[in-house]
Amino acid sequence: MRILVTGAKGQLGTDVTAALEADGNEIIPFDLPDGDITDQFNLKKTFEEKKPDAVIHLAAYTAVDRAETERELCSRINADGTENVARLCGEYGINLLYTSTDYVFSGRGKEFYETDDEKAPLNCYGETKLLGEEAVKKYCSRFFIVRISWVFGACGNNFVYTMLRLGREKDEIRVVDDQIGSPTYTRDLAVLIKEMIKSDKYGTYHATNEGVCSFAGFAREIMAQAGLGAKIIPIASSEYPSAAERPHNSRLSKSSLDAAGFSRLPSWQDALGRFLKEQTRY
Questions:
Q1: In this structure, are strands 209-210 and 143-148 parallel, antiparallel, or unpaired?
Q2: What is the pLDDT of residues 72-92, one digit of tens each?
Q3: Is 205 a catalytic residue?
Q4: What CATH fold (topology level) applies to the domain 2-158+183-210+252-266?
């Protein structure tokens, strides 16, 4: 397959590209500075010249706090840019896989969110990713919407790298303990995305590594597996003010994966262990 990957240089894009190439697919990377999803002319020219069989749309504005003061830019990338991609996929009859986020939900309660539960994003990032989902549904009949959360991988800045750095620098680290979700390793997620894009099992999915924890619990496991002695001090979100409000409940049900016959990802603890062994950055 000839697969166009937006955001190919990013944290998830790097692993998705590697997984697809390992299976013999031809990748058409579309990323800044040359590949801009907000540039409709350039995007259409790429579709016409490269003629992809499918598109995996990973490019996004992900600076959640900064988005509150850069709302126009965030919307231009996540909403308008995704609409540009979706419109072309619909026009050319191309399968589209779009990664979204747990932030489309309000985060209330303690139940696992199903894919069709009510959407009520708390911040600009979540709002614009939801607009992206709506654009995909509007323009495409053959689509995958894959909601992910708490992503970490070798190529990028993420919570794991931050905790490893702080664990070497500090004796104690204060970490939020009232936001619950599932860490997700990009290498595991890439395998699932590879399987989805070559199938016809279209629809909306939740895809994270198995199990849930708080950020404080995640941090404790990072310290334990990395052999660092820093003590994790659990705090409430109110003690760690941020520009963007975040959901307290990011539990995502995997019933959609089960129903379609896709394998669930390994546990997040297992994923973390492999991540720490497979990269040397820390």
A1: unpaired
A2: 999 999 999 999 999 999 999
A3: no
A4: Rossmann fold (3.40.50)
